[in-house]
Design a protein that fits this description.
By secondary structure, the chain is an alpha/beta fold. The chain folds into two domains: about 190 residues, Response regulator (Rossmann fold), CATH 3.40.50.2300; about 140 residues, Response regulator (Rossmann fold), CATH 3.40.50.2300. It is about 40% helix and about 15% strand. It contains 13 helices and 13 strands. The strands form three sheets. Strands 8-7-9-10-11-12 form a six-stranded mixed sheet, sandwiched between helices. The radius of gyration is 20 Å and the shape is globular. About 55% of the residues are buried.
Length: about 375
């Protein structure tokens, strides 16, 4: 990650020294950018401080800029795939938010992890006269023509838990951004291993936010000179297969003693990997993921199937924020910065706080947004 790219993370990624100073002073700080370490002991010390801050969920939330009249509109809600727990959950939150605003909603369209289907639902929504479109974790680049068509018609589009920097002015991302979560999770691995991790990361390139997560993972490991980190891609289709196959193959390539941490793109791979690892006697492996799927969180709390840590995202907040953002566009009001929202680190010590399957902010999400949407 170059200096220019890191600067774009904004408030979500600040210097490690500032993070530590702020935490000690009792004020809010944010995760460290990549920087050159002077010694591995320093890396481990900093990693432990980052872990403590994100376990305690001390990062402040960016909030909308003032109240406005949200009006009466029709919104189409399109899920990346209802077979994915995260996509299903975010779509349900967006439905609830739209109804709370008094809007008419489409049924949740199931994109089935298929860009052609997702694009078709966008075009269908435009033909049916919807005023706004909300996407749940869909790569805008994979449906570019449909997104361009929405922009040409002046129909605002928001994307929940996405990373679409190439669509400024066309798609409003309401998201954690990805990078920070990956950086924090890798720092947990560094701290947990005392700077001696032998880790393997699995990246799913179908989702740009996953690639951002693993940019953060790689940046953290570049600082750990005595860690070993390798990475390979895993297809989304492995979700429906036992093993999954990509992981089973990796266990053959990395026998006992050559690997101790497995890092997933999201939690839905984690439990199946844990089951496979246990069946092969690979109980030494510690498995991490993203998105705090409730079953994985419970396994982390119970220390089952190698489940060790995950990153929780504020799914309810980002979903309500998507409705707020398209509402502001329709009302001719300025939008707000919603592409680097906070994450929390989930480990055994705090797992009981995250059994809902997502990160709850220290305020009531529904109350906040309802108070802003003046009728």
């Amino acid at each position: 990650m170059g200096g220019k790219r890191l600067a774009s993370i904004g408030a979500a990624v600040a210097a490690a020294v500032l993070l530590v100073t702020a935490a000690l002073a009792g004020t809010a700080g944010t995760v460290a950018p990549e920087r050159t370490a002077t010694a591995n002991a320093d890396v481990v010390t900093e990693a432990k401080k980052i872990v403590q801050q994100y376990v305690n969920s001390k990062i402040p939330f960016t909030k909308p800029n003032g109240a406005f009249s949200i009006g009466r509109h029709k919104v189409a809600i399109i899920s990346c795939g209802q077979a994915g727990i995260g996509c299903k959950q975010m779509s349900a939150f967006a439905q609830s938010a739209a109804k709370a605003a008094g809007w008419t909603t489409s049924p949740t369209y199931d994109g089935q992890f298929n860009p052609a289907k997702q694009a078709g639902f966008v075009q269908q929504s435009l033909q049916q006269g919807y005023d706004a479109i909300v996407l749940a974790s869909i790569d805008a680049a994979s449906i570019k023509a449909a997104v361009d068509a929405a922009a040409a018609k002046g129909v605002p589009v928001a994307c929940i838990m996405c990373w679409n920097p190439g669509f400024k002015g066309k798609v409003i991302d309401t998201t954690t951004g990805g990078y920070t979560g990956g950086y924090v999770l890798a720092n947990w691995v560094i701290a947990d291993s005392n700077g001696k991790a032998k880790a393997l990361g699995f990246r799913d390139t179908a989702f740009p936010i996953v690639s951002e997560r693993f940019r953060g993972v790689q940046a953290a490991f570049r600082r750990c000179k005595s860690c070993t980190y390798k990475q390979q891609d895993i297809p989304t289709t492995d979700l429906s297969k036992p093993g999954p196959p990509t992981f089973t193959g990796a266990l053959t390539r990395y026998p006992r003693g050559t690997l101790d941490y497995v890092m997933n793109p999201y939690d839905f791979f984690s439990l199946s990997m844990g089951t496979t690892a246990k069946s092969q006697g690979r109980t030494e492996l510690k498995i991490t993921g993203f998105d705090a799927w409730s079953d994985a969180v419970k396994a982390i709390g119970a220390t089952k199937l190698g489940q060790a840590a995950t990153i929780a995202a504020p799914f309810e907040y980002v979903s309500w924020a998507a409705i707020d953002q398209v509402g502001r566009k329709l009302a001719g009001r300025p939008t707000w910065k919603s592409n680097s929202l906070p994450v929390a680190l989930v480990v055994k010590a705090n797992a009981k706080r995250f059994t809902s399957g997502y990160y709850r902010p220290p305020f009531n999400v529904q109350t906040l947004f309802k108070s802003l949407w003046k009728k």
